[in-house]
Amino acid sequence: MIDINKTTENITKTIRNFMAAEEYSYGNGYLQKATAEVKILGTLLLIFLAISSRNFAFPLILFIFAVFLALASRISPMAYISRIYIMPLFSVIIVLPLAFAGGDGIYGISVSKEGMEYVALFALRVMASVACISLLLFTTRFSSILSALRRMHVPPTLINVMAIVYRYLFTFLTQLNDMLMGRRSRMIEMKRSLRGASNFAGNFMSRILFKSDAVHMAMRARGFDGGMKAFSKKFEWNLPTISYSIMVVAMVLLWILIEL
Questions:
Q1: What is the phi/psi pair of residue 111, to 5°?
Q2: N or C of the chain: less Cβ packing under 10 Å?
């Protein structure tokens, strides 16, 4: 049976965690002072190094490096770890069948040593990559990311889509939360059924479509012509930006030393 109302707590928790991550970007930590362009390019480079690593050493070092930067940026360890552990566990579930592809039998189960090593390496790659991207989101305002992407000559259409999705994602989640709370308040005994879940999902989708049309018409009425303006911030080299760039270069050299 399907418990729709249990989703209320999960949605509320998701919104709270995401908004808490946004609040850290307004802090006075180390990476909060670094320039957004450098953080974006550095994060992409570190992720590329993590996914191209062929041994366990570099992803583990990169993860420790990301945790160190998170602590230096005054990010709560619990908030940071709570954003990291889910994706590695999910990745292990996906690639776990590869561990049983051939190999010697253990307790009647065929387990491959190469397969187990690949599963562990894949999980470490994902953990290091998620740690880096979470560090970027914790220490950089979304408006600063959009402005930096614009200065990096990213296609405006992609930037506009990202801005609209980010802006109205919270609106749709809040509306879903209100619908679930209203449904709970009007029912004495909650019924769990697949039909009830499908009816609820259909009602929610219809409200989303109506809301999207209303938002589009409101934007057109206010002069929206397909482009969105973003504040312009001058690029500047400060001490956190320079030191972070040096650390990223050091990680590149370490990757070369380990892998080559």
A1: -125, 135
A2: C
Do residues 129 and 31 both lie within one domain? yes
- pTM score, whole prediction: 0.80
Partners of 105 in the beta sheet? 110
**210-222, pLDDT tens digit by residue?**
887 887 788 788 8
Do 240 and 136 share a domain, yes or no? yes
- Residue 224 half-sphere exposure toward CB, CA atoms < 13 A: 12
Over residues 86-103, mean pLDDT? 79
Measured between alpha carbons, how far is 11 from 184 in angstroms, rounded to an integer? 15
Domain that holds residue 189: 1-26+142-229
